[in-house]
């Protein structure tokens, strides 16, 4: 199949990933060479399912103004321990049923398109907080990894042995980020540094902190999530 403008890995999308506008105006200074070196040349066969999900307009959740941020409202909620992560050796792995498995250091991740949002974090335990997060859209990482056609779920593995699984559409939502900043500063360790999930479409327990690995799969395993395996709902949508 030939390349066309709907190909998620078309040059146009690579330009978007690299921070260029479609018109070719440099927005962030991120190099296309970097994205091309991660994704390879965009001549692979299309992944129809991924493409459909990317093209299906997913309604963005309305965001809050920065003045609405509640700096002290986000309660640290960690089931066990805070892992000790060495940032110099840290790598995010994106693997599973993909054609282009990725091993990314933090510098590379921070050179990809940075997105910022002010959203409400909601914990089932009865509290909420308006927070600003910035990071890389998970969909950009998934596109770079080139999922095979059968992929329907993603596992997020954390350094504290927390684990979560998500449906692919929720992962590809434009406001599902792997965040490395919170309220304008580098993400604090207790909030999941160096990388944690942030999204306005899922309850707090889906938003894994200290993410080290994203594994794309076609079937869920018996372990579906740290809290889900103790009876909490799997989809956990907001
Ligand atoms: N790795 C990991 N991620 C996690 C948790 C955890 O214990 N370990 N707790 C979850 C829950 S229940 C909530 S509400 C949020 C809390 O995020 P915060 O500690 O940054 O406020 O993280 C979620 N992600
Ligand atoms: Mo939570």
Give the SSE order as H and E letters: HHHEEHEEHEEHEEEE
What's the rounded overall pLDDT mean?
Answer: 89
Q: What class would the helix/strand composition place it in?
A: alpha+beta
- How many whole angstroms does the radius of gyration measure? 17 Å
According to CATH, what is the topology? Sulfite Oxidase, Chain A, domain 2
Shape by Cα distribution: globular
Mind summarizing the main beta sheet?
A: 5 strands, mixed
Strand proportion: 15-25%
> What share of residues is helical?
10-25%
CATH class: Alpha Beta
Low-confidence stretches: 1-5, 20-27
CATH architecture designation: Alpha-Beta Complex
Number of strands: 10
Small molecules held by this entry = ligand MTE, molybdenum atom
Instruction: Give the neighbour order of strands across the main sheet.
Output: 2-1-10-5-6
- The total domain count is 1
Please work out how many helical segments DSSP would assign.
6
Distance between the termini: 38 Å
CATH superfamily label:
Oxidoreductase, molybdopterin-binding domain
Q: In words, what does this structure look like?
A:
The protein is an alpha+beta fold and 238 residues long. It has a single domain, classed as Oxidoreductase, molybdopterin-binding domain (Sulfite Oxidase, Chain A, domain 2). Helices cover 18% and strands 24% of the residues. It has a 5-stranded mixed beta sheet. Strands 3, 4, 7, 8 and 9 form a 5-stranded antiparallel beta sheet that branches. The relative contact order is 0.18. The site of molybdenum atom has 6 residues, from loops.
């Amino acid at each position: 199949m030939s390349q066309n403008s709907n190909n998620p890995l078309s040059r146009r999308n690579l330009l978007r990933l690299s921070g260029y506008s479609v018109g070719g105006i440099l927005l962030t200074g991120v190099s296309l060479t970097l994205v091309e070196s991660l994704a390879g040349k965009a001549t692979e066969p299309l992944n129809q399912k991924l493409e459909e999900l990317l093209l299906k307009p997913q309604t963005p959740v309305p965001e809050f103004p920065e003045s609405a941020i509640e700096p002290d409202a986000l309660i640290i909620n960690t089931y066990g321990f805070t892992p000790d992560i060495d940032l110099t050796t840290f790598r995010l792995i994106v693997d599973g049923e993909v054609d282009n498995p990725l091993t990314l250091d933090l510098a590379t991740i921070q050179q990809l398109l940075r997105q910022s949002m002010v959203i409400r974090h909601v914990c089932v335990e009865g509290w909420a907080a308006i927070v600003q997060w910035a990071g890389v859209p998970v969909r950009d990482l998934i596109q770079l990894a080139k999922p095979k056609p059968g992929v329907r779920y993603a596992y997020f593995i954390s350094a504290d042995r927390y684990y979560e699984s998500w449906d692919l559409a929720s992962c590809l939502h434009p406001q599902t980020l792997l965040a490395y900043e919170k309220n304008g500063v580098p993400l604090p360790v207790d909030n999941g540094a160096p990388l944690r999930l942030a999204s306005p479409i899922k309850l707090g327990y889906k938003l894994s902190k200290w993410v080290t690995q994203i594994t794309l799969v076609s079937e869920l395993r018996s372990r579906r999530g740290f809290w889900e395996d103790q009876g909490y709902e799997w989809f956990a949508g907001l």
